[in-house]
Amino acid sequence: MRPSILLAAVAAESIRAILPRATVDCPSCLGLLSQLQPLAKSSTDALVVQLTGLCIQLGAAPADVCSGVVNGAGPVLATALRQINVTGPTGERLCGALMNVCTTKTPVPFTVPFPKPPPVHPKVWKSRGRVPFRVAHLSDVHIDRGYTPGADANCTKPLCCRVFPDSPPTPSAPAGPNGNAHCDSPVSLAESMLAAVEHLQPRFSIFTGDVAERLVWLVNQSDVSTDLHDFNVEMARTLSAPVFPSVGNHDTSPVNLFARSTSNTVNNSQWVFDIDGRDWARWIRPAAASQVTHHSGSYSALVPGTQLRILALNTQYWYIQNFWLYDSDTFQPDPNGLFSFMVSQLQQAEDAGERVWIVQHIPSGGSDFSVDSSNHYDQVLQRYKHTIAGLFFGHTHGDQFQIAYSNYSARTAENAVSVAMIGPSLTPNSGNPAFKLYEVDPDTYELLDSTVYFTNTSDGAFQSSPTWAPLYSARAAYGPLVDPPLPKNAPLGPVFWHNLTVAFLANQPLFDAYIARISRGASASVCSDADGCRNRTVCDLRAMRSQDNCDVPTPGFSLRRRMEGEDSGLVETKCEGVGLADVFRAMAGWA
Ligand SMILES: *[C@@H]1O[C@H](CO)[C@@H](O)[C@H](O)[C@H]1NC(C)=O
Ligand SMILES: *[C@@H]1O[C@H](CO)[C@@H](O)[C@H](O)[C@H]1NC(C)=O
Ligand SMILES: *[C@@H]1O[C@H](CO)[C@@H](O)[C@H](O)[C@H]1NC(C)=O
Ligand SMILES: *[C@@H]1O[C@H](CO)[C@@H](O)[C@H](O)[C@H]1NC(C)=O
Ligand SMILES: *[C@@H]1O[C@H](CO)[C@@H](O)[C@H](O)[C@H]1NC(C)=O
Ligand SMILES: *[C@@H]1O[C@H](CO)[C@@H](O)[C@H](O)[C@H]1NC(C)=O
Ligand SMILES: *[C@@H]1O[C@H](CO)[C@@H](O)[C@H](O)[C@H]1NC(C)=O
């Protein structure tokens, strides 16, 4: 028998009783999991009905959003609750994902095995000063194929611009055809960006993931299948050069939930890897396409006519919002063999005298990246630092970067070993739609410049025909302002970006300009010294390893919410959309 809504009401009272607002902490979250465990053990339905009732009752979200979100993630949570010791280490990790409590910066010790020691004499890559080539970096397009011009852009859901069953007959703010800040991207906006990219004639493009719209309570497997395939077709139709894409956390359904190979389920997202493997073969060639299909969405492929290999990783097995990671108490240092795949491809590249660019969705330095996996990831970066010439991430929707150091206790210019470029999003929900264009040295594959192109949604002509223009070039805007100024012809390497963070701490207007650029001038967020924001932000820029970032977990707030705060200046991740964490947040009294 299904528990009634009345029962849910009783549970809401009792859950509020064990989780009064002031004391949301690790023990109370573990206590909540202990309360939910018998429900999950009685049946998945029982848990889903109960959580849906609570979500609605506590006003965490509108009823349709509650039921869509809980129907998606609830069954995986139920599986986890049935299979783990909810008061043990796995329960603590689950509480980290759900309520931002029980978090730790101390990874489980694990030494990543490498097939060979580092080379004694690593290959030296020398620039001959030849004409650079261009590469476009696209990210987080979040195309909503249900976007309806004229539908209300002012609605009660997390995202608007669709006609919902309960939309008022007369919209108060009719959406224009090309996009709105309260909505994900219409197809026309994506096509406009692709045309702008094609006009710039890149040698190739990289795409750091997240195709699907974030109306996660509505989208199902057939919607996401269409989303993935249609965008692959649109890229192929408009871009004459190859694209090297990677999979994002929104590129499956239910969102984020990529099962591990050890999970007991039929929906392991293989359908995602089948679609992308088929569709990407035109760019990455059949051997790499077969890796996509057989290695959970990851692959490596040589860029034709170069010694540059693209290594695209499906980071979702390292993502704390993937609840499949909590379905067993057995610690898995390498879910789905992703690290062993990464190492094998890097070793082959090193042996072949190639350089590698890593292309992936989720930045390894954020607090939503497992602290364990981030530590393992850093071990791989350190081992192959001579082979890796670039890292490209998305997910945060912001124009940002992260630096890795050989010694995180001494984050100095001398110790800076790698830098990751984080690409801005297309979706107008996180700032003005944008992409990056790199100038690349054809001998070293290092970046000589990075220019953000954007379209201004506040511009009068945006709804009739969006125009794309450079916002700024990193070399022009930052090169002269670091101390000493960046020498002519020097690449934008890790040491340059480190020196820029030093300049940020010395030069408030320069730092303010960086903060404004994160959202392409759309958000008026302020990041000052008054609350330590500038120091914290610089610390996060200097932390490609998540255990070294300066995020302070705020219990009850999901990471995403905290970072979205207009005043935080961090805009850490806007990727998530509404999720199960919001339901738990409401239970904690924060709704
Ligand atoms: C569950 O974990 C807790 C905390 O580590 C431990 O005290 C308890 O013995 C564990 N229970 C079982 C059944 O293993
Ligand atoms: C948005 O909708 C609400 C409720 O329908 C209405 O009260 C409000 O005035 C609208 N806001 C705008 C900017 O149209
Ligand atoms: C998926 O959702 C769409 C509406 O977005 C609906 O038309 C379709 O029937 C659904 N498919 C399945 C398999 O539930
Ligand atoms: C890392 O830096 C710290 C602080 O300067 C220093 O004490 C330590 O010896 C360094 N570690 C290594 C391995 O160089
Ligand atoms: C970074 O700054 C240091 C001085 O702190 C300087 O020695 C070095 O040349 C600079 N590097 C670059 C790439 O600008
Ligand atoms: C976008 O356009 C608005 C309105 O013209 C203008 O105020 C704003 O400065 C522009 N933003 C950028 C980043 O150029
Ligand atoms: C920022 O951090 C540095 C040390 O890293 C410290 O000296 C300085 O006082 C901090 N500034 C603020 C405003 O907190």
TrEMBL record:
CDD domains in UniProt: MPP_ASMase
A GO term, aspect molecular function: metal ion binding
Reported cofactor(s): Zn(2+)
Co-factor remark: Binds 2 Zn(2+) ions per subunit.
Family listed: Belongs to the acid sphingomyelinase family.
GO cellular component: extracellular space; membrane
Cytoplasm as UniProt keyword: no
Record lineage: Eukaryota, Fungi, Dikarya, Basidiomycota, Agaricomycotina
Function: Converts sphingomyelin to ceramide.
Disulfide linkage: 26-102, 55-66, 155-160, 161-183
InterPro entries: ASMase/PPN1_MPP (IPR041805), Calcineurin-like_PHP (IPR004843), Metallo-depent_PP-like (IPR029052), SaposinB_dom (IPR008139), Sphingomy_PDE (IPR011160)
Protein name: Sphingomyelin phosphodiesterase
Keyword terms of this UniProt record: Disulfide bond, Glycoprotein, Glycosidase, Hydrolase, Metal-binding, Zinc
Signal peptide: none
Pfam families linked to this entry: Metallophos
Binding residue positions for Zn(2+) 1: 140, 142, 210, 397
Gene Ontology BP term (one): sphingomyelin catabolic process
Ligand binding (Zn(2+) 2): 210, 249, 361, 395
Domain Saposin B-type stretches: 22-106
Gene3D superfamilies referenced in this protein's UniProt entry, alphabetically: 3.60.21.10
